[in-house]
TrEMBL record:
PANTHER family: CARBOXYPEPTIDASE O, PROTEASE FAMILY M14 CARBOXYPEPTIDASE A,B. The keyword Nuclease does not apply. Residues 1-23 form the signal peptide. It comes from the Eukaryota. Its cofactor is Zn(2+). Keywords: Metal-binding, Signal, Zinc. This is Peptidase M14 domain-containing protein. InterPro entries: CARBOXYPEPT_ZN_1, Peptidase_M14. Residues 33-331 form the Peptidase M14 domain. Belongs to the peptidase M14 family. The active site is at residue 297.
């Protein structure tokens, strides 16, 4: 008997070794830690591999340092193009909580669409285009050592006599470019570049949005810090045509966020609650006709700033997820009213059935 048990244990050990050697061992991704670009890229491949029916990847550009800019496309495959939601994270390298949120968001929707009727309906009617790290060059540089941790910009070299590196990607889009909230000093953190779209990363997003602008209903760009939800525009004298609705949707998202862990988010244009700026991706998205465009500035309000401790990753992502879903559900229900009614009826039927079942127990 002992010999048999030992034989089984030896076989199991050999199988485990083979799984490790082949990279098949069970390893749960730690969503409570910050991850390097290599780890995030491997995670993206894992998401695609584990969810082949609803997840695929797409390369839509190259960084200055010649890295592929890749997004995850999530949703049920259809015969015709679907309406879509865009989300990007990590446009500013030092804002590590932003890529952590994109990963959390993907985990949540992929983990719930088979059991949650509302998320399932989102997958049927919408595609999600999610870029976990847009500024890959800068993000990798911010991981180099303590002296580079707070790097913000891209990694393109300065032009002319400038020896400094990088352009603020969120000042480089063709939306009121160069008008307010920028610097023409190429060493500044808010340097807007020599020309609009001088940065390949901004050009890649611009090209993708232009090619899909009739599909895209919503543009979400995730930043830190400040606990804000920003609506277009960054210029103090320009308002979005649907400003009032954007504010209503943003305030509802802030309420959804507060309900999770009690954190308050301010809602408004950048000049109203932060500072004026121009050339942002949020403003560009609204300018080309994407109706709902928001910037999330995640935790905190300045205690840790860009160095948000890892023990705040999970609560930050939990609350921001509810805020993002508040916006996405609003947009979905407005555009697919029949689907929203069907989901409501299904949920009500489920609740009634559950109540009847519970009543029968007694």
């Amino acid at each position: 008997m002992k010999g048999s048990v030992m034989s089984v244990l030896v076989v199991l050990a050999l199988v485990a070794q083979d799984r490790v050697a082949c990279g098949l061992e069970d390893k749960s991704y730690d969503y409570t830690k910050y991850h390097t670009m290599d780890e995030i890229s491997a995670w993206m491949s894992q998401m695609e591999r584990e969810n082949p029916d609803v997840a695929s990847s797409m390369i839509y550009g190259r960084t200055y340092e010649n890295r592929n800019i890749t997004l995850l496309k999530i949703g049920f495959t259809g015969a015709t193009p679907k309406k879509a939601v865009w989300m990007d994270c990590g446009i500013h390298a030092r804002e590590w909580i932003a890529p952590a949120f994109c990963q959390h968001f993907v985990k949540e929707i992929l983990g719930s669409y088979q059991t949650d009727p509302k998320v399932n309906m989102l997958f049927k009617n919408l595609d999600f285009y999610i870029t976990p790290v847009l500024n890959m060059d800068g993000y990798i540089y911010s991981w180099k050592d303590n002296t580079t941790r707070l790097w913000r910009k891209s990694r393109s070299p300065g032009t002319g006599n400038c020896t400094c590196f990088g352009t603020d990607l969120n000042r480089n889009f063709y939306a009121n470019w160069g008008m307010v909230g920028i610097s023409r000093n190429c060493c500044s953190e808010i340097y807007n570049g020599p020309t609009p779209l001088s940065e390949t990363e901004a050009q890649a997003v611009t090209d993708f949005l232009g090619a899909h602008q009739n599909q895209l209903l919503c543009y979400l760009t995730i930043h830190s810090y400040g606990q804000l939800i920003l609506v277009p525009y960054g210029h103090p004298n320009i308002s979005a045509p649907n400003y009032n609705e954007l504010m209503e949707v943003g305030l509802a998202a802030a309420n959804a966020i507060k309900a999770v862990h009690g954190k308050s988010y301010k809602v408004g244009t950048s000049p109203d609650v932060l500072y004026a700026n121009s050339g942002s991706s949020r403003d560009f998205a609204r300018l080309i006709g994407i109706p709902y465009s928001f910037t999330f500035e995640l935790r905190d309000e300045g205690d840790y700033g860009f160095l948000l401790p890892e023990d705040q990753i999970q609560p930050t992502c939990e609350e921001a997820y509810q805020g993002a879903m508040s916006i996405i559900n609003y947009i979905h229900d407005k555009n697919f009213r029949g689907s929203a009614i069907t989901v409501t009826a299904t949920l009500w039927t489920t609740l009634v059935a559950s109540w009847i079942s519970s009543a029968n127990v007694f």
